[in-house]
Design brief:
The complex is a heterodimer of chains A (346) and B (280). Chain A has 346 residues and is of the alpha/beta class. Chain A has 14 helices and eleven strands. In chain A, strands 1, 2, 3, 4, 5, 6, 7, 8, 9, 10 and 11 form an eleven-stranded mixed beta sheet that branches. The longest helix of chain A is centred in the first third of the chain and has 19 residues, at 2-20. Chain B has one domain (47-279): MetI-like (MetI-like fold). Chain B has helices at residues 8-36, 41-47, 51-84, 90-97, 99-102, 105-116, 123-128, 137-161, 165-173, 178-207, 210-216, 226-235, 239-279. In chain B, helix 6 runs parallel beside helix 11 (210-216). Chain B is globular.
C-alpha cells in the first residue's frame, strides 16, 4: 500500500518536472541575441563555418553574443514551414519561388531583390554525378535517356533542387543542345523529359537525401547540383562530376523575414548577417564548399575550380519563376503532365 | 517436466527459426555497431559526447516521459470506461482510438500544423498569449501523444475485461471502501498490463520521427529530438556520430524492454506464490 502511494507520488513529481521545463524562448537581451536561420539542405557545411565567423565579427562590433538556431529542410518544405509559423529571422533557400511564397504570405515586406546581387547569395549549375571512372560513359544529357541508365533525382514537389534539374534538362533540349532532340520544339523536349523520368528509380524529398542514396549505391547517375558533387567528393566519395554542354544557372536567394525580425527585435543583427554573407570572407567559404559565388573577388579567386559552361542559361530564359511555377510545376504544367504519363507507363 | 524426444524435423525447424531471427534482428544491430566502432571505441564515444546530442536526448526523454505519464492515467481510464461503462457514442470512441494506427506520422504532423500553424483560426489567440505550439515543444509533445495514443488503451482493455469481479464483490461485502478495493484488489491485477503498456508507449515515443520533424521543424538544439539528430548526422555525412547515437538510443530502448520484462516476471512470481499460499 505504502509502496503504491510512493509510485503515484513519483509519477506526479515527474509529470510536474517534465511539463515545468516548457518550450524554448527566442527572447533577446542586451548582451545576447538569438536568431533563427531557416535554410535548404545543401549549404549546411558552409554555414557551419560562416556562422562562427559572423559571431566573432558581431561580438567585436557590438559586444553582443549571437546565438544561432539552425534548421535545414528541403527548400520547399522550409518555405512552407515559415509560412505555417516557423519563426525564421533569415531564410536561405534554393530558389526565388520559395522566397516569393513567404513574401506572398505577407511575412517579407521589403524588396529583398533590391540589393547588389538581387538577393542571390550563391549560384551553382545542374550537373551529373557518375560512378568512379564513368563506367557507363555518360557525356551529356542525351545519355540520360538511354535504357541502360538508372537515374536518381529528387522530387520537384518537395525539393527546389529537383526543379532546377527539370529546368536544366528541358532548357538544354529546347535550346538544341541535346543530341537527337530537335531544338526549339517544346514537344520534343517534353518527350525527352519523359524518357529520362522513365529511367528515374528513386525520387527523394531533398537534394541532399537524393545524393546520399546515390552514395548508398542506388542508380548509375544522379542529376544534382555541382556543389553537391563537390561536397561529396570532399568528404571522400569517389563519384565524378560531369558538366553538360548546356545547363541552367542555379541561383540561391537569401532574405530577412520582416514579420519575424520585428517580432523578435532582431532586425539589426539579421540584416547584418545577410550582408555578411556577401562579404569576400563568407563567399570564399561558400566557394570552398562547392558553390559558385557572386562576390567578384571571391569568384576570381575560385575560378579554377569552376569551369565555364558552354551554354549557360538562367530562369529568365523561361520567363522567370512566376511563369515557371505555372507552366512547369502548376497542376497543368509540363512536369505534371509528363510524370502522369510516366506513372501510367506510356 | 517430461520433454519429448525431438526428431530431425523439429531440429531443422528450430535451426531455421534461429537463423531467421539472427538475420532479421541481430544482423542489422551488428552492422550498426560495426559502423559506430569502425574507428574504435574512443572516436565513437567522443562523437556523441557533444552537448547537442545530449540536448536532443533530453528533449526526447522529456516528451516521452510526459506522454507515458499522461497515457498511464488517461489511457487506463479510457480503457476502463470502454470495458465497464455503457454510454452513447461508445462504438464511435472505440473506432476513433485506432486512427493513430492508420495515419502516417508525417500526416499527423501536417494535421497539427493546420490546426496550430499561422493560417489556423487558433493562431491569433495563441499569438496573443505568445504561446507557440507549432515549431516548438508543445506541438512535438501533442504529435507524440497522438501517435502513441492507442497503445496503452489497447493493452489495458483485455486486462480489465479479465479482472476477477468475484474478488471485488467479496471485498465490497466485507466493507472495503472503493479506494481500498482499487489499490488492494484491482491494481495488483492491472500491474503487469500497465508495465507492458508503458513500455510500448515509451518505445514508440522515443522512436517517433516524421510527426515531430514536420511539427517541430528540426531546429538544432531546440526542436531536435534524438531521432532527428541521427537523421541530421546522416545528412551531414557524420556517420560515426549517427551510428553511435543510434546504437545508444537502441540500447536504451532494449534496456527498458528488459527492465519491464523483469518487473513483470517478478510480479507474476509473487502472484503465483500468493496464489499458492491462498490454496493452502
Amino acid at each position: 500500500m505504502k509502496k503504491t502511494i510512493k509510485y503515484v507520488i513519483i509519477a506526479v513529481v515527474l509529470a510536474v518536472f517534465v511539463s515545468g521545463c516548457g518550450g524554448g524562448s527566442t527572447t533577446s537581451s542586451e548582451d545576447e541575441v538569438r536568431i533563427v536561420l531557416g535554410a535548404y539542405t545543401t549549404p549546411r557545411e558552409a554555414y557551419g563555418e560562416i556562422i562562427p565567423l559572423f559571431q566573432a565579427y558581431w561580438e567585436a562590433e557590438t559586444g553582443q553574443r549571437v546565438i544561432f538556431e539552425e534548421s535545414y529542410l528541403g527548400s520547399g518544405a522550409q518555405s512552407r514551414a515559415v509560412v505555417e509559423g516557423f519563426e525564421a529571422d533569415v531564410v536561405a533557400l534554393s530558389l526565388e519561388a520559395d522566397v516569393t511564397r513567404i513574401q506572398n504570405a505577407g511575412l517579407i515586406t521589403h524588396d529583398w531583390k533590391a540589393g547588389e546581387h538581387g538577393g542571390i547569395v550563391t549560384t551553382s549549375i545542374v550537373a551529373f554525378a557518375v560512378r568512379k571512372g564513368n563506367p557507363k560513359g555518360v557525356g551529356d544529357w542525351h545519355d540520360l535517356a538511354r535504357p541502360d541508365i538508372e537515374v536518381v533525382t529528387p522530387n520537384p514537389n518537395m525539393s527546389g533542387g529537383a526543379m532546377w534539374n527539370i529546368l536544366g534538362l528541358y532548357g538544354a533540349a529546347v535550346r538544341g543542345h541535346v543530341e537527337g532532340v530537335a531544338g526549339g520544339d517544346p514537344e520534343a523536349a517534353a518527350e525527352f523529359l519523359r524518357q529520362v523520368l522513365t529511367n528515374v528509380s528513386v525520387m527523394d524529398k531533398s537534394a541532399r537525401e537524393s545524393i546520399l542514396n546515390y552514395e548508398m549505391g542506388i542508380g548509375d547517375l544522379a542529376i544534382t547540383y555541382e556543389n553537391e558533387v563537390l561536397v561529396g567528393r570532399n568528404s571522400g566519395q569517389e563519384y565524378e562530376l560531369v558538366i553538360p554542354t548546356s545547363t541552367i544557372l542555379i541561383e540561391n536567394p537569401v532574405a530577412v523575414v520582416d514579420a519575424n525580425v520585428d517580432k523578435h527585435g532582431t532586425r539589426e543583427v539579421a540584416e547584418a548577417f545577410v550582408e555578411f554573407l556577401f562579404t569576400r570572407e563568407a563567399q570564399e567559404i561558400y566557394a570552398q564548399h562547392g558553390l559558385r559565388v557572386v562576390n567578384p573577388e571571391a569568384a576570381a579567386a575560385s575560378a579554377s575550380l569552376y569551369p565555364p559552361v558552354e551554354d549557360l542559361f538562367t530562369v529568365v530564359y523561361f520567363g522567370g519563376w512566376d511563369v515557371i511555377m505555372v507552366d512547369f510545376f502548376g497542376p497543368e504544367g509540363i512536369y505534371n503532365n509528363v510524370i502522369l504519363q510516366v506513372h501510367r507507363g506510356e | 517436466m517430461n520433454q519429448e524426444k525431438k526428431g530431425l524435423g523439429a531440429w531443422v525447424l528450430i535451426a531455421v527459426m534461429v537463423i531467421y531471427v539472427i538475420i532479421l534482428i541481430v544482423g542489422p544491430i551488428i552492422a550498426l555497431a560495426s559502423g559506430a566502432f569502425q574507428d574504435g571505441v574512443v572516436p565513437a564515444v567522443r562523437s556523441i559526447s557533444s552537448g547537442v546530442f545530449a540536448q536532443s536526448l533530453v528533449l526526447t526523454l522529456r516528451i516521452s516521459v510526459l506522454v507515458v505519464v499522461i497515457q498511464l492515467l488517461l489511457g487506463t481510464m479510457i480503457a476502463w470506461m470502454l470495458v465497464r461503462h455503457a454510454f452513447v457514442g461508445k462504438s464511435l470512441l472505440n473506432g476513433l482510438i485506432d486512427i493513430p494506427f492508420a495515419v502516417s506520422p508525417v500526416v499527423v504532423g501536417y494535421m497539427l500544423l493546420l490546426l496550430f500553424g499561422r493560417n489556423s483560426p487558433l493562431f491569433p489567440l495563441l499569438d496573443r498569449w505568445d504561446y507557440r505550439v507549432a515549431f516548438d515543444t508543445p506541438g512535438m509533445f501533442l504529435a507524440t501523444l497522438f501517435v502513441c495514443f492507442p497503445f496503452m488503451i489497447r493493452e489495458m482493455v483485455p486486462v480489465i475485461q479479465n479482472l476477477d469481479r468475484q474478488q471485488e464483490f467479496a471485498a465490497a461485502t466485507l466493507g472495503a471502501s472503493s479506494w481500498t478495493r482499487f489499490w488492494r484488489i484491482i491494481f495488483p491485477q492491472l500491474k503487469s498490463g500497465l508495465i507492458y503498456g508503458m513500455t510500448l508507449t515509451l518505445a514508440r515515443a522515443i522512436g517517433e520521427f516524421g510527426a515531430v520533424l514536420v511539427i517541430g521543424g528540426g531546429v538544432q538544439g531546440r526542436t531536435e529530438t534524438a531521432t532527428l539528430f541521427i537523421f541530421r548526422a546522416l545528412e551531414e555525412r557524420r556517420y560515426i556520430e549517427a551510428y553511435s547515437a543510434a546504437l545508444l538510443l537502441g540500447a536504451f530502448s532494449v534496456l527498458i524492454v528488459f527492465l519491464a520484462d523483469g518487473l513483470k516476471r517478478s510480479h507474476e512470481k509473487k502472484q503465483m506464490i500468493s496464489a499458492e499460499v491462498n490454496t493452502l
